[in-house]
Amino acid sequence: MPTEPSEPRPTFEYRPMFGRVLACIVGVVCLAGVIGLALAGDNGNLLRTVWLPMLLAFLAFALFWRPKIVVADEAVTVVNVFHTVVVPWGLIERIDTQYSVTLHTPTRRVSVWAAPSPGVRGAIGIERADVQNLSTSAYGAGNSVRPGDSVSTPSGQVAFVLRQRWEELQGEVPANPAPGALLYTLHRTTIAVFGALLLGFALGALLP
């Protein structure tokens, strides 16, 4: 039977700082470009070319600013570019870092866009201290330690927090909840805006 946790654990949220800085830089450059076109007074040229900086700025927001992962006692919330997935702990079978931090569930693999793996070249070695506080069960059956598991990398930091919380919650959450407990939400507004800007860019390119 699940037992009650002794006290609430802090919520962990990860959104890469580099991505936010990059999104801001791209946004500022695109805004400066739009302002420059507007000040030039050439409305025809503005109508043709304004779509590209708007598209780039929106892509920077969608790709680098919005994605994040939130680790709480109730579930893990993964906000990716075009969708958000809420994964109850009881559905997690394995946590992997081969290409990015990935939660394996009975029905789908949930990759964390905000925490990609650095690959072999990005992490020369994994110190034993990185994983010494976790048992092998935290890695899941058949899952080996990878370069992306090093806590000196963003993916390793996120994976370490996930595995540590996963172990702490053993016995406190119901095992194997219904597959429908995994909540998948499509970012329809993001997709619609991206489509509209892409269409505007294509039409602008066709204008004389």
Structure description:
- By secondary structure, this protein is α+β, with helices and mostly antiparallel strands.
- It has one domain.
- The chain is 42% helix and 18% strand.
- It is built from seven helices and eight strands.
- It has helices at residues 17-40, 43-49, 51-65, 119-122, 128-131, 154-168, 188-206, and strands at 12-14, 68-71, 75-79, 83-88, 94-96, 100-104, 109-116, 183-186.
- The longest helix is centred in the first third of the chain and has 24 residues, at 17-40.
- The radius of gyration is 21 Å and the shape is elongated.
- This is PH domain-containing protein.
- Keywords: Membrane, Transmembrane, Transmembrane helix.
- It holds the Pfam family bPH_6.
- Residues 66-106 form the Low molecular weight protein antigen 6 PH domain.
Provide a concise account of the structure shown:
A hairpin with a 3-residue loop joins strand 3 (75-79) and strand 4 (83-88).
Q: How would you summarize the topology of this molecule?
A:
Blueprint: E1 12-14, H1 17-40, H2 43-49, H3 51-65, E2 68-71, E3 75-79, E4 83-88, E5 94-96, E6 100-104, E7 109-116, H4 119-122, H5 128-131, H6 154-168, E8 183-186, H7 188-206
Antiparallel strand pairs: 1-2, 2-3, 3-4, 4-8, 5-6, 6-7
